[in-house]
Structure to design on (66 residues):
């Protein structure tokens, strides 16, 4: 199971509840993207990041795309 290299976000599991409150197992998968980035000025590296982490990192300058 893949995970975000910075935040560690993984697939989450829980119950899907119907109107009648029947339950069945379901999962929520993060929007993982494989990107080549420089994190805090380190050497370029291919990592999996969620779209949310990538957007935030590019905005605050801690992540630079290569």
């Amino acid at each position: 199971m893949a995970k975000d290299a910075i935040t560690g976000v993984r697939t989450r599991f829980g119950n899907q509840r119907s109107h009648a409150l029947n339950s069945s197992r379901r999962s929520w998968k993060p929007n993982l993207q494989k990107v080549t980035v420089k994190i805090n000025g380190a050497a370029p590296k291919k990592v999996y990041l969620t779209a949310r982490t990538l957007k935030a990192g590019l905005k605050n300058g801690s992540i630079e795309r290569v």
Observations:
- The two ends are 25 Å apart (CA to CA).
- The CA atoms of residues 56 and 63 lie 9 Å apart.
- The mean pLDDT is 95.
